[in-house]
Design goal:
The protein contains 10 helices and 14 strands. With 276 residues, the chain is of the alpha/beta class.
């Protein structure tokens, strides 16, 4: 098999219109890939306790979880953590200062999947036009942040969500953050941040090397800004038909939309067909 590790993004890629269910044909294609010796991983922005119902229980074909935009790698079957990159107190302080400068609400997601945010931020989210999925996560996992963000360093913050960031303030915000975080554009209105040294590419590269492979042995599927670096570096990066323009530009191939079985089609076309 040409590609030894298959890295699947979830939302907008492996999942369909229902954020809890796989897109058409995905599970069947993944089962076949695993049966032929390919190691299957999901590479998602979600933390461990916010995974879709389709992964409960964890299917036998799934071996690895790359979580929080590549800030953590876990064994899917045992939940053991293999790799983690958390924000330092100094980085959290710099991100928080930049967010305050531009009045950007922030959710600080820790290694136990808790979403720390101020009361003002929570109110803005609950009264916003964000989808039911995001609001549901905040309702279940939200925690009040009534101290400086740097105080969360001991709880290992893996990711910062910023769901409302106007385009006009993004250059200034990025300049204020400097090298305290990796900033990713993950769709209309929002940014996601990880600690320096994290990101899906870093995490998948680490996993591949741990398994004795190189990044050229990886087939990656994705649709968003947090997938761009991985799609560009992988042996084969495949963007979804519904992907952001920068993800399509970074990929070597494009498949159908997630709601139309595009992920399964890509696995069959570029991973399984050569073994038949």
């Amino acid at each position: 098999m040409r590609y030894k590790l298959l890295a699947l993004d979830l939302d907008g890629t492996a999942l369909g219109s229902d954020p809890d269910r796989f897109s058409p044909g995905l599970a069947e294609a993944a089962v076949e890939a695993a049966a032929k010796g390919c190691i299957v991983a999901v590479a998602t922005g979600r933390p461990a306790k916010c995974l879709p119902a389709a992964l409960d229980p964890v299917p036998g074909w799934l071996q690895w979880l790359v979580l929080c935009d590549g800030a953590e790698v876990r064994n899917a079957q045992t939940n053991a953590c293999l790799w983690r990159r958390a924000f330092s107190a100094a980085s959290l302080a710099q991100v928080e200062a930049a967010a305050r400068m531009y009045d950007i609400p922030a959710e600080y997601v820790d290694c136990d999947s808790r979403y720390h945010m101020t009361a003002v931020t929570r109110h803005r989210i609950e009264t916003s036009g964000l989808g039911a999925f995001h609001k549901g996560v905040v309702a279940r996992q939200g925690c009040l942040l009534d101290a400086p963000a740097a105080s969360l360093a001991g709880q290992e913050v893996l990711k910062v969500n910023m769901p409302f960031v106007p385009q006009e303030v993004r250059p200034g915000f990025a300049a204020a953050v400097k090298d305290a975080a990796l900033i990713m554009d993950c769709g209309p209105g929002g940014l996601e941040l990880t600690a320096p040294g994290a990101g899906k590419l870093s995490a998948v590269q680490f996993l591949a090397q741990t398994l004795g492979f190189s990044i050229q042995d990886v087939m990656a599927l994705g649709d968003s800004g947090n997938d761009v670096a991985l799609l560009a570096a992988a042996g084969l990066g495949v963007a979804m038909g519904n992907a952001q323009a920068e993800a399509i530009a970074a990929a070597r191939a494009v498949t159908g939309r997630n709601t139309e079985g595009g992920a399964a089609d890509a696995i069959r076309r570029w991973l399984l067909e050569e073994t038949r």
